[in-house]
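Subject: for your reference before the review

Hello V.,

The reviewers asked for a structural picture of the protein, and I figured it would be easier to keep everything in one thread rather than splitting it across files. Below is the amino acid sequence we used in the manuscript, unchanged from the supplementary table.
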Amino acid sequence: MIPSLPKHLLPKRLPFYFQFMPRLSIAQVQTQEELVEFRHSLQQHIYTGLAALTVQRQQDQQATESSL
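And here is what came back from the structure prediction:
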């Protein structure tokens, strides 16, 4: 158990896209280093999802433009 977490590691508010992500357990996090690693993996998951969404939007836009 981590007695107190540094405030700079966790955001004050949850970003909008967190509402659509599955819940992730932090039961395995025991140290501050593990928390940093968990946060990094979560960021990578978010950025990968945002990149995929950007590509999908570009493809949809190109398909719409070519059908006109």
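For the response letter, the relevant points are probably these. The chain has a mean pLDDT of 78. The radius of gyration is 17 Å.

Happy to draft the paragraph if you're swamped.

O.
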